[in-house]
């Protein structure tokens, strides 16, 4: 959030005469690149990976993370777009607060088995993790319905928020 709020700080500094008037525009463009491109990739898994029956460990841009497969709290599907097409990552969070973006097929299989095990425990009264509908479909645990709607909504949300953000940054910069 701090990165995305930089143009507003630049606006305050420009109003005080400390930085040039166009500073919010420059800060806005740099913040948009960092915020919309880099931030979603911070928790995504990178090689090397280590898998065990209870943990999924992978390197990320912010260091090594180890997800406890027995204590998964929530999973949602993060959809981003690039020139190569649609990029999907399952962002899993465990009870310890560790977040890991699952992108490989092997890790998805491990996560799917952990969810199936947790779903079996729900029958015995133990609450299972919260899964978004799109994450459940992407894992193959639900009929293939709604992923297209999720993709369209993700695209509309991304383009609308990026457009509004750029408009505000340009207005703050006096353009």
Provide the residue-averaged pLDDT. 80
The residue fraction in helices comes out at 40-55%
Structural class: alpha+beta
- Shape designation: elongated
Calculate Rg over CA atoms: 20 Å
Query: What is the strand arrangement across the widest sheet?
Result: 6-5-4-7
Stretches where pLDDT falls below 50 for ≥5 residues?
Answer: none
How many β strands by DSSP? Answer: 7
Tell me what portion of residues adopts beta-strand conformation.
25-35%
Order of helices and strands: HHEEEEEEHEHH
Largest beta-sheet details = 4 strands, mixed
Tally of helical segments: 5
State the separation between the terminal residues, measured CA to CA.
Answer: 24 Å
Descriptive report:
By secondary structure, this protein is an alpha+beta fold. It has 5 helices and 7 strands, in the order H-H-E-E-E-E-E-E-H-E-H-H. It has a 4-stranded mixed sheet with strand order 6-5-4-7. Strands 1-2-3 form a 3-stranded antiparallel sheet, with no helix packed on it. A hairpin with a 3-residue loop joins strand 1 and strand 2. Helix 1 runs antiparallel to helix 2 and helix 2 packs antiparallel against helix 5. The mean pLDDT is about 80.
